[in-house]
Specification:
By secondary structure, the protein is α/β, with parallel strands linked by helices. It has one domain: Ribose 5-phosphate Isomerase B, Chain: A, CATH 3.40.1400.10. Helices cover 47% and strands 15% of the residues. The protein has a five-stranded parallel beta sheet, with helices on both faces. Helix 1 packs across helix 5 and helix 2 crosses helix 3. The longest helix is centred in the last third of the chain and has 18 residues. The chain is globular and about 40 Å long. The model has no long low-confidence stretch (mean pLDDT 94).
């Protein structure tokens, strides 16, 4: 299992309330955290936040990322627009197991309007502890990467 040393985290106006709890859980495990969450009031658009976390990963400044939003749906879409990002929506233990174990997700997206803080922190622990299985799943990730390359080559 790959060692996770650095995680970038952010949250929109729905997610900022739990960012600090996530940071506390991560630092308690000895993980360095890059906090990209704005701390202002009012509505905070998530697409630029998702891009910022994705770019932390693709640049090598972070091993993984966490995005906290309302439903998490739009955040997953925005994160996955960054080439090399594999964002998974963490709404249950099963979803976490699949996103990490089968899809080697490098960004965990949590919908804070969907699951409460306590459950989201339980899912975080599971996400951090679930290794990528490799094997046939690595072959499928290579196929996804090939699609990504084709899309970039045609534009």
């Amino acid at each position: 299992m790959a060692v996770i040393e650095r995680i970038a985290i952010t949250g929109d106006h729905h997610g900022t309330a739990v960012v600090d709890a996530f940071i506390d859980a991560l630092t308690a495990r000895g993980i360095a955290v890059t906090d990209l969450a704005p701390r202002g009031h009012g509505v905070i658009d998530y697409p630029p936040l998702c891009a910022a976390v994705g770019r932390e990963i693709t640049s090598g400044r972070a091993d993984m990322g966490i995005v906290l939003g309302g439903s998490g749906q739009g955040e997953v879409i925005a994160c996955n627009k960054i080439r090399g990002v594999r964002a998974g929506l963490a709404y249950s233990e099963f979803a976490v197991d699949i996103s990490r174990g089968n899809n080697d997700a490098n960004i965990m997206v949590v919908g804070t309007k969907v699951i409460d803080e306590r459950h989201s922190l339980t899912l975080l622990e599971r996400w951090l502890d679930t290794p990528f299985k490799g094997g046939v799943h690595a072959q499928r990730l290579a196929q996804i990467a090939a699609i990504e390359q084709e899309e970039w080559a045609t534009h």
